[in-house]
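Changelog note: in this version the structure field was regenerated for every chain. One regenerated record is shown below for reference.
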Amino acid sequence: MMCGNTCGCGHSGCAGNCAWAIKELQGQINKLTQQITNIESSKITTQTVKVPAHSHSITNTQFTAIPGSQATLTVTRPTKLVAFVSFHSITPSVNTSCDVTSALNGSILTLAGYNDYPWPTGTSLNHNNWANGVSITQEVLQPGCTYNYDIRARVRGGNQPSTANGFASLLVLIPLINIVSKTI
């Protein structure tokens, strides 16, 4: 605060041009800038992917992208992606399953690498009545890369088509830099 010809340094002759005040102000600006940078880099962000068409016939025994389920993710720091997919499906018999999961750049996602089963660690439903399903998968994403995301589905255990409706994903992007620095 300037009163008369001073800048607050206590010297009445500085005429408001005190280097001390400028230095203090610059220090406060630098501190605020760092605080804002820390807040921005630690934000968890989300992205939703809602498939525009409600109903889909699942006929392929290989995982196939659901039309309209695509999204592009670009990351600037190491990030963990957790993908939640919701849907409901019906199969013609209990011998046929509808498997649903997520994919990045065409590769099926798993939950922490557990994919030694005949289906991914997404969701597999074989109810011959409408049933709700949720698939939860994760992947660590590298900075400077662009990832193409989509929801994938297949039928398993039979050659009869399944019907799946209401596909939507919630993609949670968790920065890893801040998690690592807080645990040290």
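Spot check on this record: The first strand starts at residue 45 and ends at 50. The chain has a mean pLDDT of 80.
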